[in-house]
Amino acid sequence: MTAEVVGLRDGRAEAVAFQPLDGVPAGCPAVLASSEAGLPVGDGWLGRVVDPLGRPLDGLGPLPAGPRFRPVRTAAPEAGRRRRLGPRLDLGVRALDAFATCRRGQRLGLFAASGVGKSTLLSMLAAGADCDVAVLALVGERGRELREFIEDDLGPEGMRRSVVVCATSDSTALMRREAAYAAMAVAEHFADSGKQVLLLMDSVTRFALALREIGLAAGEPPATRGYTPGVFAELPRLLERAGPRGEGCAGAITGLFTVLVEGDDHDEPVADAVRGILDGHVVLDRSIGERGRYPAVDVLRSLSRTVPGCLLPGERALAKRARRLLAVQAEMADLVRLGAYRAGTDPAVDEALRLAPRIEAVLAQGKGERGTVEGAFAALAAAMEDDDGGAD
Question: Are 4 and 15 spatial neighbours (Cβ–Cβ below 8 Å)?
């Protein structure tokens, strides 16, 4: 049985096992086997499903070994030698392409409570985003969803360019934690060879829960909502590894990380910490999904910090006007519902009430639809053609 030393206390080395401890009696000898874990990642891993220790889960036989072992715990590229973000990236989802436009090497968070559509949105991104390689990290996910995700969402074509790293919810805390590190190491392998990599991790919250479980077992004191201090130290060490690589390497890791907020509280500790590390956030709102509009992206609460560097002036003006119209419509929704607003009282409100439903129709997108940034703004411009005077 493999274990990892996670702390030193009272003259003892404390270890946590990668497997359940069923059948292990007290007094078993422990042997120090190695000092650093690594994965023999290679291009032959494309199209495969592996566990965090690099063992195949798809029944397709042994994995071909790469030229060398790649450590799963490494430092992020030096900030002063890191390349800048690349051009904008087609994510294939209109709501994101228009209102949270992403650049190559950027890191976005997808924030939502359970049952709001994070996994479905992730599958749309995996199938529709413009990338050379997709690496999917399923951390603490339901075991039954793995084959559904691979066969229904990715399909044979999407799987050919993908590597899936999976640790299900019944795995030990070390395996769930290691899934995030292993997926990042796989993404770094392909990015260092010059490829544009899309890393999709679901979810950072379950990674943090695994860290908390390990930290408490090692004797760390519980702090904010029971999370140990080591959780908030480890989050940036993982997330900062995504992004552009160092000078001389054209590859980049564009990361999209889901965050499972507890009880729709978007200010809970993990969500707050991750939002401060990443380059933007996308909020999924339960009430939008209940109205039947999917993906349930709340564009008024979502933003990409790199938008000024990747949109044309006309596109920025279009997105700004659309946000304003949606904000006015949301502000007046209760008055309209109660019949307290009379048409013609305020031209700005009349315009918002007329055009906001058209914008909402653009944001709605079926699971099998694909889009581009240019297509998203073209659809938005067509929806906002004002019959009573034209666009601003």
Answer: yes
